[in-house]
Design brief:
The protein is mainly alpha-helical. It has a domain of about 45 residues. The protein has two helices and two strands. Strands 1-2 form a two-stranded antiparallel sheet. It starts with a strand and ends with a helix.
């Protein structure tokens, strides 16, 4: 199963589940979480608020999903 906007599911719970809210974390969210973990672990990341960290994390996730299309 795949959410066209968010990419495939990173950890699908069950391939027979058709309701997206129970399908698991999207790959976009997984990539963003990993990027945010990196930003937050760096004392001088250049971002001053959690909101700017989140925005940068999703921009990184979108770039990673785009690269997967190549």
């Amino acid at each position: 199963m795949e959410d066209k906007q968010q990419g495939p599911y990173a950890f699908p719970l069950d391939p027979n589940i058709t309701d997206p809210k129970f399908a698991g974390m999207t790959l976009r969210d997984y990539f963003a979480a990993k990027a945010m973990q990196g930003y937050l672990s760096t004392e001088h990341s250049g971002y001053s608020t959690y909101e700017t960290h989140a925005e940068a994390s999703y921009l990184a996730a979108d770039a990673m999903l785009k690269q997967r299309e190549l």
